[in-house]
Amino acid sequence: MALGRPMKKKINIINKKNNLTSEPNPSLVILRDNKAKWYLPETRREGYRNLHKINRYGLLYRSDLVLKLTTNFNKDIEKKPSVKKMTNHKYFCSLLVGKNQEILYEKYASDFSKSQPQTIMSITKMFINLFIGELLEKNMIDLNKNISHYLPDIGNGYASAKIQDVLNMNIDNSYSEDYTDPYTSSYLHESVIGWRLPKNLKDIENQEEYLNKIKAKKNKDLFNNSEFSHYKSANTDVLGLLVEKISGKPLRDWLISAVEAAGFEDALYMGTDRNHTPWIAGGGCLISRDFLRYGLLFSRKGQGVGNRKVGSASFIDQTLKNKGTKYLELKKNKFLYYSNSTMKSGDWIGHSGLGGQFLAVNLKTGIVASYFSVIDTPSGTDEKYKADMINMLDEIVNENY
Which end of the chain is more exposed for a tag (fewer CB within 10 A), N or C? Predict the structure, then answer.
């Protein structure tokens, strides 16, 4: 027998299917009305305060420095009839009012606490105001350019839209956000960012892939023929993609800069897609005091702890001057407008969050009011309650304490 390398022993590998049993994740499976368990009316209150643990994908950001807050309660706030009404409502969770580094008012529902995180939903969108403002200040972006100028792979649902119009919720494409419709686009979008399971578990799609597939309406351009907002969360996600592409910096790095400027004491819990891209349109969760700190960062126009700075003071000022689109009629002939990824009225900017959240920041008085609640209607919407909530916050932040 010739000498040489030893013969390799042939190994037969047999793949056997195991007998492990499993079931779809009960928090994320669609139960009825095309909704996951956490968003059903009877479990939504619990779902909102646990969403940072329910979503399939997420990141956690903590600040090294914490903005110190002291209490200096103002009794005039608690005496307001609107405050009494809203803080005694069954939907109520928390209301905080602050200025500079003082807490002027702080109240929690009996089943809520200072340490309890809750989803801020679409109030997450306000981060984009900071990021776009910073790009403008560095002359890296032109808001009059079309989206496709910076994102050549975007579909015809956004390609010809001007960036400024996307910032103002001023385009009309096929993406829908009508929460009274169980099959609206924004519900179907949830599987991309892990708020529900896709029909086929193998159908994994990341945020960029999803956004690039959004189409224009058939035989129609993207022009908004009305003076009213066409509210679409996908708009903000496209802007997040834009920020990444223009800057060459991941969105998660932009977010940690904002967190470290705001000086959160707990964490920003951020939902993401499977590739860890933050869901900038609505993925944030905060405790109530950090929710206030988020607003205080805007009241300081981006000036942060440790001499840090995010955003652009001039762009925040311009947000108030910008015409925007009419989002909601608060009272007869008094409107809330959508401008530069925020909502505005008079001297304040802010944002609403689906299901009963709102943040209001008066740029003139420096007063910030943050409100958590959970609406338990089937759709998570209640237009009268929403108007009452915003009018209360409008009343609070328009006074100087």
Answer: N
